[in-house]
Design goal:
Length: 130
């Protein structure tokens, strides 16, 4: 791994660790608990690696094979997974979550039926189906 790739990998790891370090647990009046933290975002990730969000997404969507592009793709998937997981756990409304994912170039739909939420993401390019 070259120095630039090592710096990028280190910056991404530090970004996710910094977000995780803000996690707080709060006791609720009903006896439950709530956890909050600074969320993973595309803009935070881009800032950490000193690229624009568009440059990060370009590495994600183009399918180039460099080590740096692979590291960025993995980081973008981690941000997307975090966003979707927060929506499924009810910590984030599904509509803002979908808009965030669409802004990252990941299309999808959400349907609400009988009080449940179904989120379907499309992989039109077929990159992630194995």
């Amino acid at each position: 791994m070259n120095k630039r790739t090592e710096r990028m990998n280190s910056a991404i790891g530090a970004y996710f660790e910094a977000c995780d370090a803000t996690r707080e647990r709060r006791e609720l009046k009903n006896g439950g608990t709530e956890e909050r933290q600074i969320p993973y975002t595309l803009f935070g990730l881009a800032r950490a690696v000193r690229l624009t969000p568009e440059e990060v997404l370009s590495a994600f969507h183009t399918g180039r094979c460099s080590k740096e592009d692979a590291i960025l793709r993995d980081a973008v998937l981690k941000v997307a997974a975090y966003t979707l997981e927060r929506a499924l756990l009810g910590e984030l409304s599904y509509q803002p979550a979908l808009e965030t994912l669409r802004g990252m170039g990941l299309s999808g739909t959400a349907e609400q039926a009988d009080g449940t939420i179904k989120i379907v993401l499309d992989d039109a390019a077929g990159r992630y189906a194995k």
